[in-house]
Amino acid sequence: MDVLEPPRVTERPPQDYLGIRLVTPFRGMLGKRNDLLDELSSWLANHRIDDAGPFFLRLHVIDMNGPMDLEVGAMTPPPVRPADHRARAGDGRVRPGMLPGGRYATMTYRNHSLRANRALLEWTAAEGLVLDRRESAAGDIFGCRYEAYRTDPRTEPRKTKWEVELNLRLAD
Known about the structure:
Elements: E1 2-12, E2 15-25, H1 29-46, E3 55-62, E4 67-75, H2 82-87, E5 95-99, E6 102-110, H3 113-126, E7 133-136, E8 139-142, E9 145-149, E10 163-169
Antiparallel strand pairs: 1-6, 2-4, 2-5, 3-4, 3-8, 3-9, 6-10, 7-8, 9-10
């Protein structure tokens, strides 16, 4: 894993997005992410939404031994014209959402997502930071946990080359 920006705490405003959410097994999750990135890219192009980005993978519920509740999205500016509202309202499969504002533990890396996640979780624990997360029978439920792809997957297909910003929302 290449750490491009070390762990730190940052304040983020709320962020509009369009995304596709589903539940899938942990095994094969990244293949499903890739399929959803392709599907969302096509949907955005077909709806002439060209100001979306960066793309991201949001993990709503994590169960490493079972189903993962995840969402692939693209950040968008708020709608400003009536036509924007219609397109940005989604269609049932693609839906609008908002990444909540607040304080986040964040780091930027390239390659080895599991190692990066482990490193950021260890750093937050060592710093005494509390994540916006709770345990349930379904797994760990996160207020907001996502990887923003600083590298556009539409132009760089090699995932090992992607610059990824990992974000874990902290409890208030």
